[in-house]
Write a structure and sequence with these properties.
The structure is a single chain. By secondary structure, the protein is α/β, with parallel strands linked by helices. The chain has a single domain, classed as Rossmann fold (3-Layer(aba) Sandwich), CATH 3.40.50.
Length: 196
């Protein structure tokens, strides 16, 4: 069975005061407080089908994430993984995977790494998820694909440039009007995973 690990996004702050300010002034609507299982990550298992096993771990403290906590929880999955795994990270999840793979050796072969709207330390506060040299990612991942939309209001499109510079072998997919990918299905990601 082909395995896909999807790491969701989150927020991280340099100080606790920054976090509290965010809680006070973050724009909210009624939908902010309602369940949101209509996100593409929740539908990925159904979209891929029975020959895939999708892991969707709920990472610790996603509203004020800490890299060391995410790293511990991520590594707890390792005993359950097969070789030729596919890794998908959205937003802070993409930044997390980039940082993890640049600093650690993943215990299994990675067939495909997909980063969707990842932050690259340039204009978005990432707390302790700050990226260093990303060159070791290409040594661990057979294929790297990055998706970003030009109208992303959460992670500016300019963040893509940092990844393009440091991961020149990565294939980028530039979309025009998908924002931060708040969609129910992500057919481009599904098609890419099935093509591997």
């Amino acid at each position: 069975m082909k395995q896909v690990i999807v790491i969701h996004g989150g927020d991280s702050f340099d100080t606790h005061e920054d976090y509290l300010q965010s809680l006070k002034f973050w724009p909210v609507t009624l939908e902010t407080f309602l369940p949101r299982e209509n996100d593409w990550k929740w539908h990925l298992q159904g979209d891929l089908g029975a020959e895939y096993q999708v892991f969707l771990p709920q990472m610790p403290n996603k509203s004020n994430a800490r890299y060391s906590e995410w790293k511990i929880w991520f590594e707890r999955m390792f005993p359950f993984l097969n070789n030729e795994v596919i890794l998908v990270g959205h937003s802070m999840g993409g930044t997390f995977l980039a940082k993890y793979l640049s600093e650690n050796t993943f215990p299994k072969n990675i067939n495909l790494l997909i980063l969707t709207a990842p932050a690259h330390n340039q204009t978005r506060e990432v707390g302790d998820f700050i990226l260093g040299n990303l060159s070791s990612i290409s040594k661990q991942c057979k294929l790297v694909h990055i998706f970003h939309s030009q109208d992303d209001q959460v992670v500016p499109f300019s963040e893509l440039g940092g990844f393009q510079k440091e991961l020149p072998q990565a294939q980028t997919h530039i979309l025009e009007d998908r924002g931060h990918f708040p969609q129910e299905h992500f057919p481009e990601v599904v098609q890419l995973i099935k093509s591997v």
